[in-house]
Amino acid sequence: MTFRHIDGFVLTPQGFVRGRLEQTDGRISSVTGEAVTESEVRNSRQDLPLVLPGFIDVHVHGGGGRDTMEGGDAAAAIARLHVRHGTTSLLATTMTAPLDEIRGALAALGPACRQRLPNSARILGVHLEGPYINPGKLGAQPDFAKVANLDEIRALHALAPIKLITLAPELPGNLELITLLREAGFQVQIGHTLGTYEDGVAALERGAGGFTHLFNAMTGLHHREPGMVGAALAHARYAEIIPDLLHVHEGAVRVALRSIPCMFCVTDSTAAAGMPDGDYSLGRHTVTKCMGGVRLPDGTLAGSTLTMDQALRNLVGMGLEIEDASRRVSSYAAEYMGLSDRGQLAVGAWADLVVLDRELQLQGVVVEGDEIDLA
Q: CDD domains given for it (predicted)?
């Protein structure tokens, strides 16, 4: 069903307005109303919903019992699961695997990126998380790490649009490759790395844009060896973080919020997202959902069950203003990926939005002007 307009407290790039948002042909055509403060929004007795930019998640492995690496119609099922939690656009994220398996996954993702199906999030492209990572810092990635190759990446890109690549900058040739990848139009993140602080700084100087799931699967901060975490905290403008409060302690999240201006949230969600406890696939691994998390048999965290609506609530629960939290589940990721027409409720942008009650429970989702059936 095509959405036409909504009245509420609309979060524009300039702040909240009490008014109306209208769309035409999938784009926002007008936002009118009276500017109000967040305090006025929170204390208002008017029964008006909150209207925020749709959530953007650049790190999604699965959901609804399906895994990106399956191929077939898995991506469609994943996009349907996450849109029901407010994610209006996402990057389908691969696992480290033999090259033939990555090719198979991308071959299935190509059509899913070209056409958005009804009641689904927009799949913007692919986040290639590996195989160009350090085999000594796999985390939950299978042990198929390999040396990066630009021609290989271009061939994969021909199957499905690769928008983001995670790699370990300390591996031979990867620093030089970062420059070439940026020149070719790919965004690059530092992750699954045993690199030093100096390696991180060098990678940022070569054009790496951010860090994959900050704190996780990277060298930690020590006052004499700042490590990759230290490079991020000292120098990064952007970085992913998984705010399920399981991957990263709330105190560490607060440190990162004070240090990285545009830190943004990802779910790193697996097939277990939106599903009951049990066993699920994560690439070649079998993982178990239990006690609120997803783990390998040895106890290693293996992605999450987080959804972006819960990420928003977790941030606000930590004390962030709704406007700040909204940027971290939407606008900053859009800026980072160069998406000037998403992540903001402004005239000319895609009509991607979420409608929430005062408890930040989801009441409605609109993707490119289409109202999503949340049933």
A: NagA (cd00854)
Residue of 67, 244, 268, 309 marked catalytic:
268
Mean pLDDT per 10-residue section of the chain, whose length is 375 residues:
87 98 97 97 93 98 97 96 98 97 97 96 97 96 94 98 98 96 97 98 98 98 98 98 97 98 98 96 94 91 96 98 98 98 98 97 97 92
CA 322, CA 309: separation in Å to the nearest integer? 12
- Determine whether 67 is an active site residue: no
The domains of the chain, with CATH numbers, are 5-52+353-371 (2.30.40), 55-336 (3.20.20.140)
**Counts of helices then strands in the chain (DSSP H, E):** 11, 20
Within a 13 Å sphere around the CA of 246, how many CA atoms are in the beta-carbon half?
A: 20
- Helix intervals (H) in 211-331: 227-235, 250-259, 308-317, 322-326
Q: How far is CA 145 from CA 121, 152, 161, in A?
A: 30, 14, 21
pLDDT digits 0-9 by tens, 49-86: 999 999 999 999 999 999 999 999 999 999 999 999 99
Distances (CA, A) of 55 to 5, 68, 248: 19, 19, 21
Q: What tokens appear for 362 in the block?
A: 């989801």
Q: pTM of whole model > 0.85?
A: yes
Give the pairing of strands 187-190 and 210-211.
parallel
Give ∠ CA 310-316-317 in degrees, rounded to 5. Answer: 85
Of 120, 119, 139, whose CA–CA distance to 129 is shortest?
A: 139
- Nearest alpha carbon to residue 84 among 63, 99, 108: 63
Determine the 3-state secondary structure of 234 from DSSP: helix
Evaluate whether 293 touches 305 at the Cβ level (below 8 Å): yes
How far is the first Cα of the chain from the last one, in angstroms, to the nearest whole number?
14
